[in-house]
Amino acid sequence: MVDFLALVTNPNIFNQFPHTVLAGLVTSAFFIMGISAYHMLRGSHPEIFRPSMRLGIITGLLATVLVIITGHISGLHMTQVQPMKIAAANAQWETASYAPLNLVAWIDQQQEKNSMVLAIPALESFLAHNSFSAEVKGIKDIQREMEARFGPGYYVPPVALTFWSFRIMVAAGFWMLFLVLYAYYLERKGKLESSPGVLKALLYTIPVPYIANTCGWIMAEVGAPALDSLWPAAHRRGPIAMRHQRPAPDNPCRVYPGIGYPGGGGRVASGPFRPRGTCNRT
Ligand code: HEM
Fold first, then answer.
1. 261 - beta bridge partners?
2. Ligand 1 atom nearest to 72, measured from its CA
3. Atom of ligand 1 at shortest distance to CA of 85?
4. Residue 183: what are its φ and ψ, rounded to 5°?
């Protein structure tokens, strides 16, 4: 580490730190609700699990609302500081005003296009800039800008992984919000214990925040563009000395940075991101 003060005063801390702490609270609240629901379904120890369910519902409701709000603020901040991550999280290749939010898409990173897209018009502009008409930069333009700024290289992260991990995190957030709101309503009416469907849903939702956390982390790390050209060679590890190259049929080798460390532990893309053909490491 070069500068600890720069780390703890990083402006991202004010969004991402609360988002991550709240995500932990969501996780514990849904764990408490799930275990309480299990015991309520069996009718065991009501004197313990009624109050614990109430505690879980109140904490879960507040934390879920706040995790969504901080997530949105984090998205606005990311649009300013890491536009490539946000463009990849929406699989948006071209710059557009009234940019649609792609709900689902079949993403072809080689061809730089999507097919079978289901989208909500103008919503991405609103989410990224709080304005339906705002222009949202696309991956291709950001790639060009980054090449002009940092030198030749392929700065586009694995788009499908960034896109889907973001979708899963957000879908999990809204599912938990819906469920905890409904549980709160039933609890207020005194009907929660006699609603086995909702109790079972609470029990089976225990893994959901863990999945959301993992997807949030994947999106945050994988979606960060490869900035190894910013790092002096002495700070690089592994085969990062290889040049980033755009995927092309005659030169299909791609290099991504190590997770969580821009420019560190670079590796040749493998698995689903590795284009067909041989690797030409120049
Ligand atoms: C539903 C709306 C949500 C939105 C709009 C949202 C937005 C975001 C964004 C933009 C990031 C990336 C920030 C960055 O790259 O620094 C992120 C990361 C993250 N999110 Fe969410 N999120 C939401 C829900 C959730 C939920 C429900 C959880 C878990 C219960 C969660 C847990 C996380 C975690 C653990 C990270 C990674 C933090 C890090 O490693 O820095 N998010 N979220």
1. 258
2. 5
3. 15
4. -65, -40
Q: Cα separation of 260 and 258, whole Å?
A: 6
pLDDT tens-digit map of 123-151: 999 989 889 999 999 999 999 999 999 88
Distance in angstroms between the alpha carbons of the first and the last residue of the chain: 30
Q: What residues flank ligand 1, with Cβ below 6 Å?
A: 12, 16, 19-20, 23, 26-27, 67-68, 71-72, 74-75, 78, 85, 169-170, 172-174, 209, 212-213, 216-217, 219-220
Distance between CA atoms of residues 154 and 84, nearest Å: 12
Q: What is the CA radius of gyration of the chain?
A: 22
279 and 243 Cβ atoms separated by less than 8 Å: no
Ligand 1 centre distance from Cα of residue 257 (Å) = 21
Domains in the chain, start-ordered, CATH in brackets? 4-225 (1.20.120), 228-282 (no CATH)
Q: Is the pTM of this model over 0.85?
A: no
Instruction: With beta carbons less than 8 A apart as the criterion, state whether 272 and 222 touch.
Output: no
Contacts of 28 (CB under 8 A, 6+ apart): 59
Categorize the per-residue pLDDT at 246 as very low, low, confident or very high, splitting at 50, 70 and 90: very low
